[in-house]
Structure formats: structure tokens, C-alpha cells
Amino acid sequence: MNKSTNNRNPFKIYCDLFGHNYEVSKKITSHVKEYTCKCCKKELTTNSNGNLIELTPKYKEINNLLEDFYNRRMMYLKNKTFVHQLTNY
Questions:
Q1: Is 14 exposed, middle or buried (0-12, 13-18, 19+ CB in 10 A)?
Q2: Residue range 56-83, pLDDT digits in tens
Q3: How much is the pTM?
């Protein structure tokens, strides 16, 4: 005879009833962010269309690469602007 146990997380039940309470957990770029629910710790991210989707290992890797590329690009543009300002004096 199988014993049925109900091991549901009470926070999961709260999210099922009232909806998730997402907060930005990581800002990848100005358009792409990762979100985490404060209650059940469910993770989401924005896809290329701007829709929220579940954060899978594939999307984590994509976001890490995108963040690295974005940061390098911003540093390049920042240095380029700085050098341009120095040469104009």
C-alpha cells in the first residue's frame, strides 16, 4: 500500500493562489534581466521577443555570454569616448 504524502512547499501554494512576486535578480543588459520569485524562488528571464520565460541552463549560458559581450562593448565605448575627449583638448 502506497502512503500518499503531501510535501508541497507552502510558498508554492501561495504563488499558485496569489501569483508570483518577482524581483530583478540580475541585470544582463538594459533590456534583458533575470527575475526570481521572492516566495518560491522560481527563475525567469526575458527572451529575444521581450517575453518572460523559464530560466533554463541553456538560457543561463546565453545570458552569461550576452552579459560578457555587453560589458566588453560598454568598456570599449567608454574608453573610446574618453580617448576622443582627450584628443579634443
A1: middle
A2: 999 999 999 999 999 999 999 988 777 6
A3: 0.74
Give the ranges where the chain is alpha helix by DSSP (H).
10-18, 57-87
* Contact (CB, 8 A) for 15 and 40: yes
The dihedral formed by the CA atoms of 38, 40, 45 and 47, expressed in degrees to the nearest 10: -140
CA distances from 50 to 44, 46, 77 (A): 12, 5, 25
